[in-house]
């Protein structure tokens, strides 16, 4: 379940939550994906719902917006008081949000199980925009195994 106070803040600050491609329905699927991967990856299940809620909340549009991840990280910092994570968990959340758009397997951040799980949770939902999940862009073995379930 999403943090209601943070979700209310996002709804006050942006309309992106209403987006059919990058809004609340997508965020919910990212959360479900991440929480379902976590038992296999060892990801921190407290971080995943925050990542799901924040990662696309600062998009300017539905198309090319290469800086939306860093903006989401800045937004999280601005609203730190609403995020119930310890400092290390918050650091991981910021890294996950900031890097989720451009990260590729093998990058340093992807070696953290929680960050990798967050990124895979998002990428497993790429079918919503008409693309096919490509396991070459996934970070965890658990997510790669799920690709075959999606086909």
Automatic annotation (TrEMBL):
Under the heading Gene3D superfamilies, the entry gives: Hypothetical protein af1432
State the Gene Ontology terms under molecular function: helicase activity
Superkingdom, taxonomy of origin: Bacteria
SUPFAM superfamilies with a match to the protein in the record: HD-domain/PDEase-like
The alphabetical list of record keywords is: ATP-binding, Helicase, Hydrolase, Nucleotide-binding
**Quick check: keyword Hydrolase in the entry?**
yes
Please report the name of this protein according to its UniProt entry.
Replicative DNA helicase
Q: What lineage, starting at the top, does this entry show? A: Bacteria, Pseudomonadati, Pseudomonadota, Gammaproteobacteria, Cellvibrionales
